[in-house]
Design brief:
This protein is of the alpha+beta class. The chain has helices at 95-106, 112-125, 134-152, 156-171, 192-199, 204-214, 226-241, 250-273, 279-290, 302-315, 468-473, 476-481, and strands at 27-30, 35-38, 47-51, 56-63, 66-71, 76-81, 85-88, 176-181, 184-189, 330-335, 341-346, 357-361, 364-372, 378-386, 389-398, 401-407, 417-424, 430-439, 442-451, 456-461. Strands 13, 14, 15, 16, 17, 18, 19 and 20 form an eight-stranded mixed beta sheet that branches. A five-stranded antiparallel beta sheet has the order 6-5-4-1-7. It has a three-stranded antiparallel beta sheet with strand order 10-11-12, with no helix packed on it.
């Protein structure tokens, strides 16, 4: 039996403190990276392997300043220097000291694998009645941080170190999974320790930390089917509801509100796609976004706030009641092929049986967003092909022909953003628009005057007050409903 068998079930099955440690030999943990496992107790002897922090070793003897050890993960024996490892106490009376080390390493970037090793040692040493949510909270925080560090690593010199640490924590039963999103690989912790925190009595901050980690939008598998995604988002919303927010610091409450806003915006889109009532979910998303206190928003949460606002902005039309179109230029919709919606542009002289123009889409068509200009020569419409991406469809007349142009929030990277109609400039070919998007990590937030002939911005600014045409011609309905005018 492997000497570390007592550790492996620890994080996935249950408490193993009742199991006995391997008889006869103490355990040591590697405290550094790139530690040489040598053939003999000599610096000049052959190197069998490189060991990484957090690696657990079975100690079988000592020779001078070397320990004779056996590594069950790689199934190799050898010698390591005494100063590169630390003996792991695993007796009941040692539990408080082990927990103190876990508390220290919990918030120590770069020491996640070592912290996970000490957490495993604590859970083995502590009596069952003394184990609460704290060690699982620490374990989850360290595992999630290690996954983020590995995902963000662009340094080839650190790649081997991180790869070694990931192998070490995997041997403790920590599951780090990879997600392929548009050709980009992201590493995410599977959250088992955080699920234990949610199931155990825990402090409000521990519950909040666990819920935020388990609902991270960056770790949602894009391969989920629509039915699976709907069930998963319902679970995410329920999980966030279970966090007692009353005793939390305001900045943590902000994080919960932002996450709730994102989740409910996703649910609103999913409901609309399945022809289910979505207005309540969209209204909840707007309310959660409005509950964020921007005056107590910490600087590093600003990007998350903008992302939440864009997700809510993309689906906000689900909160609006459908309006009965007038007799002038407007649209009607009809079912096309399975899952498809056909848009027909009509006016007083052209009914839906002989429309001015017809286009079909698999996106969600927000009929209530349709806005025609006073001359009856153009109409703007919001179409949402993805949960966090909303486009502007511009129907307009070119000579005697009607055409439709699709204006996306950004030229590429269609993942997060929206563009929306903000008003018509009378007696001109100009239209006002608001745009928000995240492209290659860069946040775009601007107000534009678009030329309908070229779809190019003739003027733009980061505030509508900086554009005189916005001040004079912005649409009143847009101003009262948009989330782009937040602080």
């Amino acid at each position: 039996m492997r000497a570390r068998r007592w550790i492996l079930p620890l994080l996935c099955v249950g408490l193993v403190h009742a199991q006995s440690a391997p008889a006869g030999y103490p355990l040591a943990v590697v405290t550094q990276d790139s530690v040489a496992l040598r053939a003999r107790a000599s610096d000049s002897s052959a190197r069998h392997a490189l060991l990484w922090q957090g690696e657990s070793l079975e100690v079988r003897g000592r020779s001078l300043d070397y320990l004779q050890v056996y590594d069950h993960r790689i199934e190799r024996a050898g010698f390591v220097r005494v100063g590169q490892v630390h003996l792991l106490p695993t007796h009941t009376e040692d539990a408080p000291a082990l927990l103190s080390v876990v508390r220290f390493l919990r918030d120590m970037p770069g020491s996640e694998a070592l912290g996970i090793a000490y957490t495993a040692a604590y859970l083995k040493a502590a009596p069952g009645h003394a184990i609460d949510a704290e060690p699982f909270d620490a374990l989850g925080v360290m595992a999630a941080r290690l996954a983020r560090r590995a995902s963000a690593n662009h340094d080839k010199s650190a790649e081997q170190r991180l790869s070694g640490q990931l192998e070490v924590v995997a041997d403790y039963g920590v599951v780090i999974r990879s997600i392929d999103r548009d050709g980009r690989m992201t590493l995410c912790y599977d959250g088992e320790a955080f699920r234990r925190v949610m199931a155990l009595p825990a402090t409000a901050i521990q519950k909040a930390t666990a819920a935020l980690a388990l609902t991270d939008p960056g770790c949602v598998d894009p391969a989920l089917t629509p039915v699976q995604r709907d069930a998963f988002d319902t679970w995410r919303a329920d999980l966030l509801e279970r966090v007692p927010s009353g005793d939390l610091p305001r900045y943590v409450q902000n994080r919960l509100h932002m996450r709730m806003a994102s989740v409910w915006a996703q649910i609103a889109f999913e409901h609309s796609r399945r022809q289910q009532p979505a207005r309540q979910a969209a209204a909840r998303a707007l309310d959660e976004l409005a509950a964020v206190d921007t005056h107590t928003l910490v600087e590093r949460d600003r990007a998350a706030y903008n992302d939440a606002a864009m997700r809510v902005g993309a689906s906000r039309w689900a909160a609006e009641a459908e309006l009965k179109p007038g007799a002038g230029l407007h649209i009607v919709t009809a079912a096309g092929r399975p899952g498809e919606t056909c848009i027909k542009l009509v006016d007083r002289k052209h009914a839906d049986s002989s429309p001015l123009l017809q286009r079909c889409t698999y996106g969600t068509v927000w009929v209530s967003s349709a806005r025609a200009n006073p001359q009856g020569t153009a109409l703007a419409l919001a179409v949402q092909p993805m949960p966090s991406w909303r486009e502007l469809w511009l129907f307009h007349r070119v000579g005697q022909q009607w055409v439709v142009d699709v204006v996306p929030p950004a030229d590429d990277d269609p993942r997060l953003g929206y563009i929306e109609f903000a008003g018509w400039v009378p007696h001109s070919h100009l239209m006002l628009a608001a745009r928000e998007a995240r492209v290659d990590g860069r946040f775009i937030h601007r107000f534009e005057v678009l030329d309908m002939a070229t779809l190019m911005a003739t003027r733009q600014a980061d505030k509508p007050s900086s554009l005189s045409l916005f001040y004079r011609h912005e649409d009143a309905v847009w101003k009262s409903q948009t989330v782009s005018l937040r602080e």
